[in-house]
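Inverse folding, one chain.
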């Protein structure tokens, strides 16, 4: 069983209605891709498009940016803390 604490910020917090979430998943590990799919299934949108699209997120696993740990293939283990923050895109006209 993998127990993970999620810290949700920005649009992800609004989408899921909370800022901290503890989840449990069967198995010894889960990938970041699987975790995002699980979160998408918990939202009303049920999709990793939009707010939960990886390109719209800054994700840290135990304080380290996820791209340094394998990106979407990063392994999340029991006791890990994952922080997810939406990135605001913009520009000038």
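Residues assigned per position:
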């Amino acid at each position: 069983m993998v127990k993970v604490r999620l810290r949700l910020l920005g649009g992800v917090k609004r989408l899921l209605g909370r800022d901290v979430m503890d989840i449990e998943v069967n198995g010894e590990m889960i990938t970041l891709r699987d975790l995002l799919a699980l979160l998408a299934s918990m939202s009303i949108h049920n999709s990793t498009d939009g707010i939960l699209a990886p390109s719209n997120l800054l994700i840290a696993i135990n304080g380290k940016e996820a791209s340094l740990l394998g990106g979407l293939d990063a392994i999340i283990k029991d006791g890990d803390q994952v922080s997810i923050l939406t990135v605001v895109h913009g520009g000038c006209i």
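The chain has a mean pLDDT of 87. The chain has one domain: 2-86.
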